[in-house]
Structures are given as structure tokens and as C-alpha cells.
Design a protein that fits this description.
Blueprint lengths: L3 E5 L7 H9 L4 E4 L8 E5 L2 E5 L11 E4 L4 E2 L1 H13 L9 E4 L3 E2 L2 H13 L13 H9 L15 H18 L7 H15 L3 E2 L1 H10 L4 E4 L25 H4 L10 E7 L2 E3 L12 H9 L12 E3 L1 E2 H10 L4 E5 L9 E10 L2 E3 L6 H6 L1 E8 L16 H14 L3 E5 L7 E3 L7
Parallel strand pairs: 1-10, 1-11, 2-5, 2-10, 5-7, 6-8, 7-9, 11-15, 14-16, 15-19
Antiparallel strand pairs: 3-4, 12-13, 16-17, 16-18, 19-20
Helix pairs in contact: 2-6, 3-4, 5-6
Length: about 425
């Protein structure tokens, strides 16, 4: 039995929700290991949509679900999300949801600082943040001044921690000409939510280690995509955490030997939201076609996604940086009806051909995609559940993607419905 990590192999929004729901039904424990409530999954079960931001996908299936230490948690957003799902009939209790005691909390001051800095950034330097406080919360975490979940259990120690936090944040506010924040305001903010969070608090690493040793199947799910990784993505137009598969170990408190299979969720074309380089972006009728047919809007932000051709260079790079064993190729049906389909197979940078995305911001902005053109198909792939149901040109497209990225297709998704999937290899039975 394998423990599986699910990562997005592009810039996120690859359709992870359907796949993690399918996998969570087979898992015993589902672990969210990074990010905040700026990204999440949409699950469609029996015609009902569940939009998740912080909660692991397992909660909808009644599976033990863990928010790991690598996640930054807005406690009020978490309480609101629990209430929202319970209104949809999903029962969430401490028996199925546990929150790492050493996870960092997002506070109102983080949201305010996030918005202030983004709004003050000159044109061309904006990151495209969702202004939900994720970045500033991670900054406080590595700056060793964060308030963590466990601190809610001992309110008497909070004043000193808040003073340390505000020494930093009020200096920034003074520099921006803004009103300073009082310690009482932060204390009251935390006190108002502590009793609602503490029942879920857990030594997550300890509990997960016991589950692993007992032979339980663990599913690690991340948010966003590998190209938004703080180290390996299109820096600085990235998120504030590591999104590659290796973070599953650090963000849950388990060692890397706990990971047996890495599944990279990969869209049959490419999208991204926010600012930053996007070599294969199509700001034309092709981009409009993909965005409209693919319903490309953010799950939790509603932002329209930028769309372009499949970029084999970045996915091949993610196969390396995340150690991907196999991919789940999604949204193949969106390509139905195109006369021809292009795939980026390399870049030209300053007159030289390269087969990787450079780390330099300037170089990323200068790369020019090199395309191969494949014939499209007019028949529908939507709802196909066997290879035999796919048009010949669609099969050729999928096989060529496998060759270019150096990883096999383990699953092929042909619609948002969970049963419309061609299973080649079950990651849990690696």
C-alpha cells in the first residue's frame, strides 16, 4: 500500500479537486501540507459542489483529515468554512478534523499589510496576491514572531508574544503613515475564536506517524502548483510557501520515507492567475476559447485565469523538482474541436535553444516558446472512460505529452464528473 502526494504540476488550478476526491475515498487519512485559504479545491459529489479552502478533501467523505504545520491558518476563515460545509450537510467534528498545534495563524494585521503593500506597488511589480494575509503570515513564521495554534491554549502567554509581533508590524505601519495596532485588539481577536479552534488541536506529526506505522493509507494534498513554489517557481511571482512534493514531508512532520508515490495533476493546456511570466499564453481567440470552454475562474477568488498552450518544458521541470511518478491529465475535453493544437517543446533565450525555464526573472520574461503543431480532433472526448472511446488524434496527443515530459499518464480525466476517468495506474497500489 502506498502513501500518495498530490501536487499541481503547473501554476495551479489543474483540476486537483476531482482527483483528490477520488483518491480520498481510498485513503484513511488526508493531510493538507502547505498554503492558506487563498487556494483550494472544488469537489463535485452527486451533483453538489463543495468549495474547500483550508479543509482537506477528506472531510466531505468523513475521512480523518489533518491541517498540517506547513499551512497558515486564518482561524476565522476556518470557522466560517466549517460552518459553510455543515450548512451543506457535511458533519465536521474533532473526530474527523485535526489541526496541527504548531501551525501558524493568520491575523487581521496580516491581511491589512498584504493589501497595503500590493496596492502601493508600482505597475509591473505587483505580485497578484489575493490579499488574504498568507505572505505576511509566512514572513512572521520564519521571522520567529508568529502566533501559533498552540498559543490559543495558554492565553496568559499571549501578551508577550503579541508585543513581540507588534514591535515589527507597528514599525511598518508607522513607515506607511498608518495607525498603529493595539495589543488589546489582537488579543481580543484571538480570544474570540480560541474556543472554536482548540477542540481540533493535535500533535499532528505524532498522530500521523502512528497512522503510518499502523499501515494506514495517507494522502497528502497541496494547494496551487509547483511553478508557484517559493524556490522553484517563477519568483517573485510565486506564493509564499513551497508547493513541490517535498513539502509534504516538512509540512506534515513526517520524513520523506513516508512518501511512496507522487501524482502530478496536469492540465491538457496551461493556465495561471495573477502576475508573472507565462511563455505560452494566448491573448487571442485561442486563449478566449480555452478560458470559456474550460470555465477558467478561480475556485476561491473568482479571478479569470490566463490561458495558453500546453508547456512541456515546465511540466518536465516539475517532474524533476517534485519527483513525479505519474500524472493525472485533466481537461482533455476542452481541446475538442480545435483544428490544430500546439505544444511548447523548448524555449529560445537570447538566440540559444534551452530545455528548461530559467530561474532569473529577466530571463523568464525573455524566453520565446518553440512549438510543435499536432492535428486536432473534431470528435468529443468528454465522458470517455476507456482509451477506445477517444479519437485517434487525442490518443496521439496524450502519448506525445508523456514522451515530452518524461512521465506516464496514470489517470486521464475527461470531464468534471469523477467517473469520467481512464485509470491506467492507481497510485495507492503502486
Amino acid at each position: 500500500m502506498a502513501n500518495v502526494v498530490v501536487v499541481g504540476s503547473q501554476w495551479g488550478d489543474e483540476g486537483k479537486g476531482k482527483l483528490v476526491d477520488w483518491l480520498s475515498e481510498q485513503a484513511d487519512v488526508v493531510v493538507r501540507f502547505q498554503g492558506g485559504h487563498n487556494a483550494g479545491h472544488t469537489l463535485v459529489i452527486d451533483g453538489t459542489s463543495y468549495k474547500l479552502a483550508l479543509l482537506p478533501s477528506g472531510v466531505v467523505r468523513g475521512k480523518l483529515s489533518v491541517i498540517g504545520n506547513g499551512v497558515v491558518i486564518d482561524p476565522h476563515a476556518l470557522v466560517a468554512e466549517i460552518a459553510r460545509l455543515e450548512a451543506q450537510g457535511v458533519k465536521i467534528s474533532p473526530e474527523i478534523l485535526r489541526v496541527a498545534d504548531n501551525a501558524t495563524l493568520i491575523l487581521s494585521l496580516h491581511r491589512e499589510l498584504d493589501a497595503l503593500r500590493e496596492d502601493a506597488s508600482p505597475a509591473g511589480t505587483k505580485i497578484g496576491t489575493t490579499k488574504r494575509g498568507i505572505g505576511p503570515a509566512y514572513e512572521d513564521k520564519v521571522g520567529r514572531r508568529a502566533i501559533r495554534v498552540m498559543d490559543l491554549a495558554n492565553m496568559s502567554t499571549l501578551p508577550a508574544k503579541i508585543d513581540r509581533l507588534l514591535t515589527h508590524h507597528n514599525a511598518i505601519l508607522r513607515g506607511l503613515g498608518r495607525e498603529e495596532i493595539t495589543a488589546d485588539a489582537i488579543y481580543n481577536e484571538l480570544e474570540s475564536v480560541a474556543d472554536q479552534i482548540l477542540p481540533y488541536m493535535e500533535k499532528a506529526w505524532y498522530m500521523l506517524d502512528k497512522a503510518r506505522r499502523a499501515g494506514k493509507r495517507l494522502l497528502f494534498e497541496g494547494a496551487q502548483g509547483a511553478l508557484l513554489d517559493n524556490d522553484h517557481g517563477t519568483y517573485p511571482f510565486v506564493t509564499s510557501s513551497n508547493t513541490v512534493a517535498g513539502q509534504a514531508a516538512a509540512g506534515s512532520g513526517l520524513g520523506p520515507n513516508s512518501i511512496d508515490y507522487v501524482l502530478g495533476i496536469t492540465k491538457a493546456y496551461t493556465t495561471r492567475v495573477g502576475e508573472g511570466p507565462f511563455p505560452t499564453e494566448q491573448q487571442n481567440e485561442i486563449g478566449e476559447f480555452l478560458g470559456t470552454k474550460g470555465h477558467e475562474f478561480g475556485t476561491n477568488t473568482g479571478r479569470r485565469r490566463r490561458c495558453g498552450w500546453f508547456d512541456a518544458v515546465i511540466v518536465r521541470q516539475t517532474v524533476c523538482t517534485s519527483g513525479i511518478n505519474g500524472i493525472a491529465l485533466t481537461k482533455l475535453d476542452v481541446l475538442d474541436g480545435l483544428d490544430e493544437i500546439k505544444i511548447c517543446v523548448g524555449y529560445e533565450l537570447d538566440g540559444e535553444r534551452i530545455d528548461y525555464l530559467p530561474a532569473s526573472q529577466g530571463a523568464q520574461a525573455r524566453v520565446v516558446p518553440i512549438y510543435e503543431t499536432l492535428p486536432g480532433w473534431k470528435e468529443s472526448t468528454r465522458g470517455a472512460r476507456t482509451w477506445a472511446e477517444l479519437p485517434a488524434q487525442a490518443v496521439k496527443y496524450v502519448r506525445h505529452v508523456e514522451e515530452l515530459i518524461g512521465a506516464p499518464v496514470a489517470l486521464l480525466s475527461t470531464s468534471p464528473e469523477r467517473d469520467d476517468t481512464i485509470l491506467v495506474q492507481n497510485p495507492f497500489q503502486d
